Amino acid sequence: MEKHIHTPLTEEVTKDLRAGDYVYITGTIYTARDAAHKRMDEALKEGKDLPLDIKDAIIYYMGPSPAREGRPIGSAGPTTASRMDKYAPKLLDLGLKGMIGKGKRTQEVKDAVVRNHGVYFAAVGGAGALLSKCIQSAEVIAYEDLGTEAIRKLEVENFPVIVVADEYGNDLYQTAVLQYKR
Q1: What's the pTM?
Q2: Cβ-based neighbours of 44, under 8 Å, separated by 6 or more
Q3: Burial annotation 126-159 (CB, 10 A radius, 16+ → b, else e)
Q4: Could you give phi then psi for residue 102, rounded to 5 degrees?
Q5: What's the confidence (pLDDT) of residue 68?
């Protein structure tokens, strides 16, 4: 099913999303990869605040290439989500609602998605140039010294993703294989 959603990503929205849905996101999303997740985890362990309001937010696992003239960002394809799996359950427990990446997630992450009424979306790997056309603005908001791995606030319009893991425990990577075997 095709759906259009706006951020923030609330439980009212996630309850209607199912694994396999094609979704177009409009609104604010944040980028963060390995190094930024490590820093956020260290901040939490030190009792400090996160550099972004995580409640009902979506984090896109992406490190952009430099912006071309007249564009807010360069190629903006997803990175492998499993590298953030050791951090994701804690962030979901703190209010994160959505993650965008590529590839499978651990059972711990999928359990945290269910527990927190969240969702894991996949963006198409190798389509970074096309995905960047949906990004209207990009602003570094934390960890600028990390370069491409800095946390960015993105404003997106009709950003295309597919629901992989939903709050009901469905995992598209598992169900698609079963359908294929039939």
Answers
A1: 0.95
A2: 50, 90, 94
A3: eebeebbebbeebeeebbeebeebbbbbbbbeeb
A4: -140, 150
A5: 81
